């Protein structure tokens, strides 16, 4: 049974930014006799502007897959994912058109995955500024803001013009976070934002996330660091292993 826990008092007059209703997903392994693997089942939660919901649960219960489903990087089998726009409109992210989804991903919903994916020869400054430049912002102004963001996260100026592909795991993660949150968004999904970070860098990231909450941004994040999670999360949702009618072993036997 999935459980929601409220850790902090909700902001006054809070409305809902995202409502996830009874979503389920099984992965079909087409190269393994079409066996179904449980992704997650009957997951429901909501998150408000200015608050952070942490997804908790054991390994492989489907936490990352839920974030991907909200971003529609993976398709759900059933349920709905209702995104409440600032203009009052409600969009079901599981069913809206591709063009609307792309628009929302550019302007309103961000995903910070566990890995920084950039081309070689792109500098740290360019990598962080890119989401703003892609939105049509002035390049110099974007590079300036990127520098400020990197500075906030403790990346020294001497690294600004170096490719993050040569960075340490922690430095690369800081660039990943900076790049993921630099453009204005209303909902940000973070898959283990504190991964590879020492205590000092974790604190800098937590401060940054606190600032995003003050800007009324809604966030859903996965943490394996409970101390960090307790500092920033307003609510937690414990994901339990997906339940499907047949086990993988039974499917192998039947195949
Ligand atoms: N594209 C995919 N194809 C097949 N199976 C997948 C796919 N993505 C995820 N899975 C399976 O779905 C299950 C849930 O994976 P997921 O990565 O969402 O779990 P998680 O809770 O984030 O795990 P962890 O905490 O260990 O990172 C796993 O058994 C995984 O192997």
UniProtKB/TrEMBL annotation:
Alphabetized PROSITE patterns for the sequence: ABC_TRANSPORTER_1 (PS00211), ABC_TRANSPORTER_2 (PS50893)
Domain ABC transporter: 18-254
Coiled-coil regions, chain positions: none
Keywords in alphabetical order: ATP-binding, Nucleotide-binding
InterPro entries: ABC_transporter-like_ATP-bd, ABC_transporter-like_CS, P-loop_NTPase
Gene Ontology terms for molecular function: ATP binding
UniProt similarity note: Belongs to the ABC transporter superfamily.
UniProt protein name: ATP-binding cassette domain-containing protein
Species the sequence originates in: Desulfotalea psychrophila
Taxonomic path: Bacteria, Pseudomonadati, Thermodesulfobacteriota, Desulfobulbia, Desulfobulbales
């Amino acid at each position: 049974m999935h459980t929601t826990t409220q850790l902090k008092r909700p902001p006054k007059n809070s409305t809902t930014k995202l409502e996830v209703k009874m979503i389920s997903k099984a992965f079909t392994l087409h190269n393994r006799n079409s066996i179904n693997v449980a992704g997650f089942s009957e997951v429901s939660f909501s998150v408000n502007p200015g608050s952070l919901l942490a997804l908790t649960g054991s390994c492989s219960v489907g936490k990352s897959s839920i974030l991907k489903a909200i971003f529609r990087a993976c398709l759900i089998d059933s349920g709905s994912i209702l995104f409440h726009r600032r203009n009052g409109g409600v969009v079901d992210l599981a069913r809206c058109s591709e063009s609307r989804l792309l628009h929302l991903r550019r302007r309103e919903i961000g995903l910070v995955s566990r890995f920084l994916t950039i081309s070689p020869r792109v500098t740290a400054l360019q990598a962080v500024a890119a989401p703003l430049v892609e939105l049509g912002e002035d390049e110099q102004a974007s590079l300036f803001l990127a520098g400020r963001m990197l500075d906030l996260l403790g990346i020294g100026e001497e690294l600004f013009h170096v490719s993050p592909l040569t960075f340490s795991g922690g430095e690369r993660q800081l660039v990943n976070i900076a790049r993921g949150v630099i453009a204005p968004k209303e909902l940000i999904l973070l898959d283990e934002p504190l991964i590879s970070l020492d205590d000092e860098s974790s604190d800098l990231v937590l401060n940054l996330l606190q600032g995003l909450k003050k800007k009324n941004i809604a966030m859903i994040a996965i943490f394996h660091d409970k101390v960090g999670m307790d500092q920033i999360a307003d609510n937690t949702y414990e994901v339990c292993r997906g339940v499907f009618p047949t086990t993988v072993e039974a499917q192998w036997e039947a195949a």
